[in-house]
Structures are given as C-alpha cells and as structure tokens.
C-alpha cells in the first residue's frame, strides 16, 4: 500500500473513531443528564431533499423512506471525510508525533458546517439562533466536537501508526 493510501486509511480510522466517540458522548448525556439524542432522521430527511439546502422547518418537509438510516450514513460519512482531510493535511510527520492542539482546533472548526449549513438547513437558524437556548446548544456542540477530536486522536496515540 502506498504511503498516501496508508494516510487516507488512517484518516478513515480516525474519522470513525471520532464519530463513535461523539455517539458515546451523546449516550452518556442522555443516560446521566436526560439530554435528547441527536435526531438523525431529520438529518436524513434534509440530505434526501438536497439540493434544497435550507428549510423553514424540516419536520414540515415530506418524510422519506429510511431517513434515519440516511441520517446515520451522513453522520458517519462526514466524520470519515473529516478524518481523511485532517490526516492528509497533517501528514506523516504529525501521525508519528501527534500533537492534540491542531486536531482540537480542526475539530472545533468542523462545527462551522453544522452551524452554517446543517442547522439552517433544518430550520434551526444560523448556529441554532431559532432554538429556545442557542447558547446552550452552541456550547454543547463545541464540547461534542472536542470529544470528536479526542476520539480521532485516540487511535493515533494508542495504535501508534507510523507511516
């Protein structure tokens, strides 16, 4: 396998690991603090109605078959894409000596897609501005994306990929 393919494969592993970490975090928040789980069905409905990007209220948009499965696939697909982007950008030097700070900054930056594409696409406003408590949602999102970054970092640290 070429070095570039190895880096891309490591990125896939990083993205999967980060996304799983986010899902475990969501389950923890539900179990301990009774926070609702993410609605992947709404995300699937939004994705199925692309290229229309923005909806006033995604629940008013016609349902699609398997929208929850589509939403989960989008969730994991985006996580994998982020993992590959970061691994390719960071390169083999970072993979050998993984510093958490660049990955954490990257993880926080990835929230922009949610704030400025997905949330308004679902009818929740820019960065959750149309929700009852946008500040809480924004903070929870930043924490979740920190967990995503930690989850992406874990396989690099514990499996010690050398490219």
Explain this structure to me?
This protein is mainly alpha-helical and 163 residues long. It is 72% helix and 0% strand. The chain contains six helices and no strands. It has helices at 3-33, 40-48, 67-96, 100-109, 111-122, 134-159. Helix 2 (40-48) packs across helix 3. The protein is globular, with a radius of gyration of 17 Å. The N and C termini lie close together (11 Å). The model has no long low-confidence stretch (mean pLDDT 96).
Give a brief outline of the structure.
It is built from 6 helices and no strands. It has 163 residues and is an all-alpha fold.
Sheet with the most strands, sense and barrel status: none
Please report the total strand number as a whole number: 0
Total number of helices: 6
- How much strand? under 5%
| Helix proportion range | over 70%
Question: Topology of this protein?
Answer:
Elements: H1 3-33, H2 40-48, H3 67-96, H4 100-109, H5 111-122, H6 134-159
Helix pairs in contact: 1-3, 1-6, 2-3, 4-6
